[in-house]
Design a protein that fits this description.
This protein has six helices and five strands. With about 160 residues, the chain is of the alpha+beta class. The chain has a five-stranded mixed sheet with strand order 2-1-5-3-4. The protein is globular. The chain binds FE2/S2 (inorganic) cluster (2 copies).
């Protein structure tokens, strides 16, 4: 069986397992990108969210066969960017990180949102983050953080 070739955080990799393996499991177990969290494994919580060719996907719902030729970005790759620095500062400023379990997926959801809409209204932020569940913050701090990042990151998105 041919290996599945894809780009992970900017580096070309070749996965030698089954095309039916879940991207979530492969990211965590094979490539040790453990920012990707396992919550529900049913596409309901967003803890496993990553960007696939710039589109937010729940990696628990993506089979490796669909990953061939694509580019996957996780927090391990995103955290070295200027956009992340703006989001990080805003999340810290609003105490929008508590236990932290949801945050990698939440930040990547924010990145996907701001890439598509650099100046979102509050309802658009809530809609953009609606696939990502947080048990701790009540969401307002996260929404305020993303709104502030959008203003302070002027020109980055
Ligand atoms: S673990 Fe993938 S959406 Fe919950
Ligand atoms: S900060 Fe704990 S789940 Fe969101």
């Amino acid at each position: 069986m041919d290996a599945i070739r894809f780009i992970l955080n900017g580096k070309e990799v070749f996965y030698e397992g089954s095309a039916s393996d879940r991207l979530l499991d492969v990211l965590r177990n094979t490539y040790r990108t453990t920012s990707v969290k396992c919550g529900c494994k049913e596409g309901e919580c967003g803890a496993c969210a990553v960007l696939m060719d710039g589109v937010l996907v729940n990696s628990c719902c993506v089979a490796m066969g669909a990953v061939e030729g694509s580019s996957i970005l996780t927090m391990e790759g995103f955290r070295d960017t200027k956009r992340y620095a703006v989001l990080d500062k805003a999340f810290a400023g609003f105490s929008a990180v508590q236990c932290g379990f949801c945050i990698p997926g939440m930040v990547l959801a924010a990145e996907a949102l701001l890439s598509a809409n650099a100046h979102p209204k509050e309802e658009e932020i809530r809609e953009g983050l609606s696939g990502n569940l947080c048990r701790c913050t009540g969401y307002n701090a996260i929404v305020n953080a993303v709104s502030t990042a959008a203003k302070e990151g002027n020109g980055l998105w």
